[in-house]
Design a protein that fits this description.
single chain, disordered C terminus, 305 residues, 79% helix
């Protein structure tokens, strides 16, 4: 295979992963409409995905986690707990806010990553990062403005859950990046997912009845789509695509994710944005693009990177 063909293959991997991840909210909304509760969806998604992840890891011949010390296990389990919180908050937001709007709010998680890293490293955000914050959160205000303070409590609750998901996911990624320096990616993934599995079993035992986990063909089909199309396959494709293509180009492609979600949410679920909200959505994308370095600001506008 030539270098050009390898690049094209990696590009297709990242595109396919972006599409699969973008459809998660759509599949979740359809599964909820088919009768699954948020708790059942969270539980069954992790229970179904866990053996598939480890079958894939075994095929790839990734590392044995049993050699980790107690400190590494503790940190990995804490990270897995953050991922579980992010997942519960994400599906709750989808239920209350819709697939499109919840995706827009969740897409601001890179801004939280910058703030968390700045706090942990005791460094001020750079000028470019501050511009990204201003543009993205101004865009969010525009998106959410039509309801304003008069929006119903369900909408505000959905917004709150979306922000909780974005913050928890950002904390998970920051923690994971630092833990993986000691454990390696395969060991971290195994331990963190094991933690999420234990956590979701406890969560299900406290909040659900056995009857809540029953499936018919419709709800089971949408759940399978979430697990295979929007969880397991895209994560493997994304990691492999980033390895071949590089994180920078992969980040550029991933910017298309929220737009895909919005288009499919309109076509399948009937969710719409007003023209003003569309402008706000574009501002959020622009802010994240600036943050990721996809769009570089002129030197006269900003000097610090």
């Amino acid at each position: 295979m030539t270098p050009s063909q390898r690049d094209n293959a990696a590009l297709m991997m990242v595109l396919a992963a972006t599409l699969g991840l973008a459809l998660k909210g759509i599949f979740a909304k359809l599964a909820l409409a088919a009768g699954l509760s948020v708790g059942a969806l969270v539980t069954l998604r992790l229970v179904w995905a866990w053996p598939l992840f480890w079958a894939g890891a075994a095929v790839r011949g990734e590392g044995n986690p049993l050699g980790m010390g107690w400190r590494e296990w503790r940190d990995c389990f804490a990270a897995g707990g953050l991922f579980l919180i992010a997942t519960i908050a994400d599906f709750t937001a989808i239920d209350r806010l819709g697939a499109g709007l919840s995706r827009i709010v969740l897409f601001t998680f890179p801004l939280f990553i910058v703030l968390i890293n700045a706090a942990m490293d005791r460094q001020r955000p750079s000028g470019r990062q501050l511009v990204a914050f201003a543009v993205s959160y101004a865009g969010l205000l525009v998106v959410l403005a039509p309801g304003g303070l008069d929006a119903d409590s369900l909408l505000w609750s959905g917004i709150g859950w979306s922000f909780l998901s974005a913050l928890s996911y950002a904390l998970y990624l920051v923690a994971g990046q630092r833990i993986m320096r000691r454990t390696g990616s395969a060991r971290f993934t195994f331990a963190a997912n094991t933690s999420s599995m234990i956590g979701v079993v406890i969560y299900a035992a406290v909040t659900l009845e056995w009857a809540d986990l029953s499936l018919d063909w419709t709800s089971g089909g949408w759940l399978a789509a979430i697990v295979i199309v929007s969880t397991v396959v895209p994560i493997f494709l994304l990691y492999e695509g980033i390895r071949r293509l590089g994180a920078g180009r992969a980040s550029l492609i991933s910017l298309a994710g929220p737009a895909v979600t919005m288009v499919v949410a309109w076509a399948v679920l009937g969710e719409t944005l007003s023209m003003v909200q569309g402008l706000g959505f574009a501002m959020v994308l622009l802010g994240v693009a600036i943050l990721e370095g996809v769009i570089r600001l002129p030197r006269g506008i900003i000097l610090a990177r």
